[in-house]
Amino acid sequence: MRRIRRKKKQAICMAAALFASLYASACGGTELENKIFPLAVLVGEENNQCRACYLSQDLSQIADERAQGSNMTAASALADTYYETQKTFEKNNRCQLDMSHTKAVIFHKGYLENGSLPLFLETVRKENTYARNTLVYLTDSSIDQLAELNSALEAPLGSYLEQMAENEQDIKEQSVVTLGTLLNEQANANRTLLIPVLKAHNGMPLIDSYEVIEGFQPKGRIDTKQAQIYYLLGNQLSQLDLTVPSQAQVRLEQIACKRRFTLIDGGVVQQLSLTADAQPITGQAAHGEVERELVSLIEETCRNVQSSRQMDLTDSYRLLARQAPEVYNLYEDGVQEYRENLEYRAKVRVDMVQE
User: Fold this and answer.
1) Strands 104-108 and 135-139
2) For 353, which DSSP code?
3) Bridging pattern class, strands 135-139 and 35-36
4) Nearest residue to 285 (alpha-carbon basis) of 240, 254, 247, 239
């Protein structure tokens, strides 16, 4: 009970701080009571129109510890484009939307598949309505389902997702996809990005897969284990638990990956050289067994994703101009051809660490 009270007290303090920051941002402009501050925005399509749902918190209740019931609100609008949707919402609700405190934007999968994302980003770029560090997610769940989830959580969905990203110990912060990441990629279109896909499970949001964005186009889903290899090879993974054929388990830490590119017989060989420390978890794993298992995992995962999704899980094209200019000059105008002709070879050196 003491722990529950402490968490509730912390939530109240955070809410009071949020209220104070919102009040300060409203001074000198639109009055606070005439503004709505969504902490999460859901964007999808309905009847061939754009639907945006704004998940907010009732400012009159967030600092009241004795408030009864949910203080979450969800309201949406429908129009031909996202920009018109926002204006329709403000007109219908006689308010001004302020997205400066929005923690996350969650797109329904249909919105991505129908090619509506570029127009959304153009609106964001021109209107400058969102912070560039706003988190980005995808979902198969309906907007109504996520709005219900927002009401069921102890914290607003946007704040919950922000905390979930901050508490992620394995994946480093700089690898998280934000609106700023997508705005940059819209201009360059040379990266392989992973957008986490949210799913409601037992009344809580969790990430159960990732949508691959390559050449600023959706390429399909990969599972969380395949995503781990993406982050591992990008030096964005802090640790990886590995089970070897003898059923022993080790935890890999201090992971570092270097790459070298070679032109061979009209194709490109990418040599992935990894070093890591291995800490035993269960059983006794032989040094060579760990290295062989990791080599096999890397090569098989990269090749399987390449053949099934026609994509490069190593996100290597962006590195060519600096690390392999001769390869870049050959494939400067043929990104997809480069990815199709890419071969993966891994080399691993593991240092066994004993407690």
Assistant:
1) parallel
2) -
3) unpaired
4) 247
How many Å apart are CA 285 and CA 288, to the nearest integer? 9
Q: Apex CA 161: angle with CA 160 and CA 164, to 5°? A: 90
One-letter identity of residue 69: G
Q: How many residues appear in the chain?
A: 355
CB 43 within 8 A of CB 82: yes
* Secondary structure of 106-169 as H, E, C letters: EEEHHHHHCCCHHHHHHHHHHHCCCCCCCEEEEECCCHHHHHHHHHHCCCCHHHHHHHHHHHCC
| pTM of the predicted protein model | 0.86
The pLDDT profile of the chain, 355 residues, written as one tens digit per residue, is: 333 333 334 444 444 445 445 454 544 444 666 789 999 999 999 988 999 999 987 655 544 444 444 567 889 999 999 999 999 999 999 999 999 899 999 999 889 888 899 999 999 999 998 999 999 999 999 898 998 888 888 888 999 999 998 887 788 777 899 999 999 999 888 889 999 999 988 888 999 999 999 989 899 999 999 999 999 999 999 999 999 998 999 999 999 999 999 999 879 999 999 999 999 999 988 889 999 999 999 999 999 999 988 899 999 999 999 999 999 999 998 898 999 899 999 999 999 987 6
Beta bridge partners of 135: 104, 178
Whole-number Å distance between alpha carbons of 90 and 84: 10
Burial class (CB in 10 A: 0-12, 13-18, 19+), 202: exposed
Chain centre to alpha carbon of residue 167: 14
d(CA 102, CA 147): 15
Three-state SS sequence of 281-329: EECCCCHHHHHHHHHHHHHHHHHHHHHHHCCCCCCCHHHHHHHCHHHHH
Spatial distance between the Cα atoms of 175 and 115, rounded to a whole number of angstroms: 24
Any alpha helices (H) in 219-281, and if so which ranges? 224-233
